[in-house]
Amino acid sequence: MIDYAEKEIRYLKGIGPRRSEAFQILGIENIRDLLNYYPRNYEDRSIIKNISEIETGEKVTVYCMVSNIESRRIRKNLHILKAVLSDETGYMNVIWFNQDYYYKKLKDGNKFWFFGRVERKTIPQMINPIFSDVFEDFAIIVPVYKKNKDLTQNIFRKTIASVLKENNYRFAEILPKSIMDDYGLVSFEEAVRNIHFPKNNDAFYIARERLVFQEFLLLQVSLLIIKNKHQNKGLKGAAYKNFNKGNAYLDNLEFELTGAQKKVISEIRSDFKSGKPMHRLLQGDVGSGKTAVAATAISDTCGNGYQAAFMAPTEILAKQHYHNLKDEFMKLGISTVYLGGDIKGGEKREIYNLLENGEADVVIGTHALIQDSVSFSNLALVITDEQHRFGVEQRKALAKKGESPHSLILTATPIPRTLALILYGDLDISIIDEMPPGRKSIETYAVSPDKRRRVLDFAGKRIKAGFQVYYVCPRIEEDDNSELISVESIYEELKNYFSEFRIDMIHGRMKTSEKDVVMNKFYEGTTKLLVSTTVVEVGVNVPSATLMIIENAERFGLAQLHQLRGRVGRASDQSYCIMINRGTGDVARRRMEIMASSTDGFYISEQDLVIRGPGEFFGTRQHGIPEFKIANIYQDMAILKKAQSAALRLLKDDPMLRLEENANIMVEINRLMDKYTM
Ligand code: ADP
Ligand code: MG
Q: 3-state SS string over 488-505?
């Protein structure tokens, strides 16, 4: 039996080589691809009204008689076709521009269905409506596809409609009946038919729900299977027996760990003892103390005779970790090296050697760590900090340098736990849900630009009181085409304004050596005010910096504002965040209200989901969240939860998906897994 779904669309009627190539560019090769290519939008022509009922501005279908048809060529490229439409309730005018071929189709006294947008002069008027003398396939909800220039919407619609009308296309049901029954889902066939040509609004929502559910379920089941594979592959991770070095590291700390930090360390240690490789995500809000946890894990690793690698997304951050940790590690007899893109030539070769022959126990660096020429003598722990900056690929590349090393991913991206559990379904998750004691909540204000002088005076007072200040701007340099405030212009201004203090600037276009000098001066407290781009967004830790000023705050998303604010409030002194809002938009205003009302990253991210407009997927890629065909994780949270419970149940009853009724899920998952291979 030939699976009709596999039939290539170039064998369909009306699809020649050119069209089939145009479809191919969109990733559509066979009938399955075609039917799984869901509309981007719809045009609802199913609202039918009498002329007396229609309202200005709406798109509507009317059934009318045509009269007074007039066809005129005004000039070479302007043709006008006019007519009067009427039904029992009234009259309206209709006008088409450059559609002279319609003239032949319209006949005085005949009736047609018209669909278009209504405008009103003295009487209603439609401009460029489409029309037909048959009702069938006209007054319906019509799909609108994302297409390319070699295809028209009509070709798309016709091709899909004709496939759906063919009798020999049998839809293989993907989900087992029990799940469809329990979650009230329609069949795959009904869903596909109605996602393309919904009978009505309800049919559309029901179809969409089924397809969203399926998409989430398949992802979730795949991730859980990957996780089971991790656990059952019999892969051996280094089994640690000795935790003296980790304990010694903790004893040397000048603070007591929070309960949450302790809990997470014990979760990590039970992975270490298990003899199986750890795959763990550590989520903790900015400033919650993830570094101490990471350092304990590194010390444990070295205490058992293995090497560890700690990868951070920027040189600033990697160096900060290096400088903070190397002396502590030294006390424990652990030798640490730094490797970033700025290490060159002989020095680099020297570090490669130390790692390869095992003389260096720990390397802290940037993605320079994943270069081919880096190799280890016995790497057993890989930590990536702020993982949303790294792709899965980069993480894997580093892990390949050891024999199934333990892997710990640190993230401050505060996605809600439910979402994290699902999107990182292949990882175990630990959460630090408690801040170190004595932190005062950061006082946060949004101000308009006319208050800027007062903000600067406040900054001056803070500096005189012995604290430091960040001043973040969205751009590096002035640009005639943009009104955004730049680092360079603010730097010039403040250098004069605060002539008695040392002011500096930092941005991504500076040389590494220049950035180092600037950062060091700020770390040691010589520099009082640092003007910067968002290069300071991630991880930078200068406890005596207690004021964050953000220019053009309307330009930043909530997650980013929260990260920026996280640069202050890192010790027990009262800290402040002042956002200068130069925008007028409601969303920006709402964001600032949320920022001013809370410092809880999880609450903020949940609010972020609430105010994001539909389709506004910004940042998902960056956060390592997979892209979906139809689902929208922000809007479809409720379905996501259902799909998750269904996935768990499915695998509990049939861990390898061997049952006949689950066979088609397995087939779909194998298709997906090609993308997610671990
Ligand atoms: P993040 O989770 O954002 O990476 P860090 O690890 O940089 O946070 O920690 C932020 C600051 O809090 C650092 O100065 C660190 O020394 C301090 N810190 C971490 N844990 C504790 C604790 N249990 N008690 C007091 N201070 C802590
Ligand atoms: Mg950090």
A: HHHHHHHHHHCCCCCEEE
pLDDT (average), residues 324-338: 97
Residue type, 282: L
Q: Which two tokens stand for residue 441?
A: 């909540």
The ligand 1 atom nearest the CA atom of 432: 2
Tens of pLDDT, residues 602-653: 788 777 766 764 334 334 444 445 567 888 776 788 898 899 899 999 999 9
- Ligand 1 mean position to 418 CA, how many Å? 25
Task: Of 305, 347, 304, 339, give the one whose Cα is nearest residue 321.
Answer: 339
Q: What are phi and psi of 417, to 5 degrees?
A: -55, -45
CA distances from 303 to 68, 148, 257, 347 (A): 93, 59, 20, 27
CB 616 within 8 A of CB 558: no
Dihedral of CA 254/258/259/261: which sign?
negative
- Assess contact for 20 and 10: CB atoms under 8 A: yes
Q: Which ligand is nearest to the CA of 293?
A: 1
Task: Read off the pTM.
Answer: 0.68
Question: In Å, how far are 7, 173, 233, 284, 388 from 429, measured between CA atoms?
Answer: 43, 34, 20, 11, 15
Q: Is the CB of 253 under 6 A from ligand 1?
A: no
CA–CA separation, 264 vs 278, rounded Å?
13
Nearest to 133 by CA among 163, 111, 151: 111
Dihedrals phi, psi of 36, to nearest 5 degrees: -90, 5
Q: Is 543 in the pocket of ligand 1 (CB under 6 A)?
A: yes
Can you tell me the distance from the alpha carbon of 309 to that of 86, in angstroms, rounded to the nearest whole number?
Answer: 77
**DSSP letter, residue 557:** -
Sign, CA torsion 352/358/364/367 = positive
Domains and CATH numbers, the chain: 46-139 (2.40.50.140), 209-233+635-675 (no CATH), 244-432 (3.40.50.300), 443-598 (3.40.50.300)
Query: From atom 25 of ligand 1, which residue's Cα is the shortest distance away?
Result: 436
Q: Give per-residue pLDDT as tens, 449-482.
A: 999 999 999 999 999 999 999 999 999 988 777 7
pLDDT at residue 673, rounded to an integer: 64
- 21-37 tens-digit pLDDT: 999 999 899 998 999 99
